[in-house]
Amino acid sequence: MQATVKWVDGRLFVGESGSGHAIVMDGPPDHGGRNMGVRPMEMLLLGVGGCSSFDVVDILQKGRHDITDCAVDLTAERVDAVPAVFSKIHLHFRVTGRNLPAAAVERAVKLSAEKYCSASIMLGKAGVDISHDFEVIEG
């Protein structure tokens, strides 16, 4: 896997993935940025959510469950020091489907957390307290 991050100006950077997709990252004005893009630590948090959501949807679809939507709300805390690393991340999954058993969603979330999601497992091994919960919505 490869990526390139190029400085544009101020605290604005453009990252390009090895697969050719680009994203803009910027800082807040009080740190020299213009708030023109996602903060780098927000990108990390989004990566955790994307990785986990990918797993949950994949596991449920492979189990032939009729899911119609999946969203994850992430909340994170950072230490009040430099570096301001994450200390806690909580993922709350909202999975919508037709006749979707809660046990299947619970299993998918657990498998992602413990076996498949490289991003959250890596951060957990680095000392971040990562927790998960979910709700099932009929629809």
UniProtKB/TrEMBL annotation:
<dbReference type="InterPro" id="IPR003718">
    <property type="entry name" value="OsmC/Ohr_fam"/>
</dbReference>
<dbReference type="InterPro" id="IPR036102">
    <property type="entry name" value="OsmC/Ohrsf"/>
</dbReference>
<protein>
    <submittedName>
        <fullName>OsmC family protein</fullName>
    </submittedName>
</protein>
<dbReference type="InterPro" id="IPR015946">
    <property type="entry name" value="KH_dom-like_a/b"/>
</dbReference>
<dbReference type="Pfam" id="PF02566">
    <property type="entry name" value="OsmC"/>
</dbReference>
